[in-house]
């Protein structure tokens, strides 16, 4: 049962995890949120459709699935790098939020006059160890993490909602870059998480059902039934996070919230470990995930982690969009998406082939301009 709803938990949790790293200094910038909504429609939505379609076509997890799909499409093995990048993106997200949790826990304990006599990097390393151990539980930590985070935020609501002053500001490429990055990371586009979730559900169905039930389920399949609930949930949670931005949370609430973050990060590390296990086996993959996450949290500044996440996730989504739009056979994707209207398929195809790559390139230019300035 938990596996079936893993994608929805992730859809609700990613905005809660990542909004704070990409929103502008003034959350009341109306033009930024309009750009974010535009990016959600023209970038994130087509990419999530592509991810679900490739999951259905490959009947395997992202890393193994890309090997099947490239052979089927007679495409270059370079496209398989999406599977590796997707695993890396999930580790970077986990490292970023664990780094934030380390800082947040220290701040909360300082308010409670209970700061431990340990260096900050030692606390961060300890949180990594806890998170890796939790990752062995698979999907189970997701509802616990969501519950802890919601309780922590509800404790902050006791002080009332923060006052937000909305106003229009100037639009530029840097603002578009932040909006696209927020749309990608809050949706999880380029992580392969929904691809992985679909694969878990498919395996469960194959194990539990007879051949006739599988055949009937296949004939009733439509990608929209999976994609739209996920996308709409992320929009709604994004609006809620916007309203809660700047809310003062008491120290106990902060500890609960950051504890929930660790549970969610454990699923991200579980996902990356499962992907790498396809090549290296479970134990080696678990150790590699642990070492890489530890290095990122302890040795890399948080601002650099944000930059790494932006670059890697953008490249991963660019690879996915070009592969789905230009390398896959049209007939295969049409069957995998199973739109009820041919016009919808044509719109999606134009978006994934042209709109998404162009939007991502403009966003990368915007980030470079921002970093250079």
Automatic annotation (TrEMBL):
Keyword Membrane applies: yes
Domain of life: Bacteria
UniProt cross-references to InterPro entries, sorted A to Z: SNS_sf
Keywords tagged on the record: Membrane, Transmembrane, Transmembrane helix
Name of the protein in question: Uncharacterized protein
Tagged with keyword Endoplasmic reticulum: no
Spans through the membrane: 35-56, 77-98, 118-137, 144-164, 176-196, 228-249, 255-273, 280-298, 304-326, 347-369
């Amino acid at each position: 049962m938990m596996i079936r709803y893993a994608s929805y938990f992730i859809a609700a949790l990613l905005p809660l995890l990542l909004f704070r790293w990409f929103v502008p200094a003034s959350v009341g910038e109306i033009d930024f949120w309009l750009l974010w909504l535009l990016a959600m429609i023209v970038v994130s939505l087509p990419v999530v459709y592509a991810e679900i379609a490739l999951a259905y076509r490959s009947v395997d997890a992202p890393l193994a699935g890309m090997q099947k799909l490239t052979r089927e499409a007679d495409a270059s093995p370079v496209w398989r790098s999406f599977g590796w990048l997707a695993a890396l993106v999930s580790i970077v997200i986990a490292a970023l939020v664990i780094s934030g949790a380390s800082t947040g826990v220290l701040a909360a304990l300082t308010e409670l006059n209970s700061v431990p006599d340990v260096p900050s990097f030692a606390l961060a390393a300890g949180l990594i160890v806890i998170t890796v151990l939790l990752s062995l539980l698979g999907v189970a930590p997701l509802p616990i993490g969501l519950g802890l985070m919601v309780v922590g935020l509800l404790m902050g609501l006791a002080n009332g909602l923060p006052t937000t002053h909305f106003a229009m500001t100037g639009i530029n490429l840097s603002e578009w870059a932040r909006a696209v990055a927020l749309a990608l990371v809050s949706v999880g586009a380029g992580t392969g998480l929904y691809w992985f979730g679909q694969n878990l559900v498919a395996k469960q169905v194959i194990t539990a059902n007879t051949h006739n039930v599988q055949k009937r389920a296949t004939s009733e399949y439509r990608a929209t039934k999976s994609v739209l609930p996920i996308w709409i949930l992320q929009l709604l949670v994004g609006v809620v996070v916007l309203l809660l931005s700047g809310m003062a949370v008491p120290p106990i609430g902060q500890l609960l919230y950051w504890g929930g973050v660790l549970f969610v990060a454990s699923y991200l590390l579980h996902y990356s470990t499962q992907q790498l296990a396809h090549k290296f086996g479970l134990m080696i993959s678990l150790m590699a995930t642990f070492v890489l996450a530890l290095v990122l949290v302890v040795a890399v500044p948080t601002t650099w982690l944000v930059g790494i996440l932006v670059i890697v996730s953008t490249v991963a989504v660019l690879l996915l969009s070009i592969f789905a739009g230009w390398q896959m056979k049209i007939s295969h994707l049409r069957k995998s998406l199973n739109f009820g209207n041919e016009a919808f398929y044509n719109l999606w195809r134009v978006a994934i082939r042209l709109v998404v790559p162009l939007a991502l390139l403009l966003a990368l230019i915007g980030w470079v301009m921002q970093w250079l300035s």
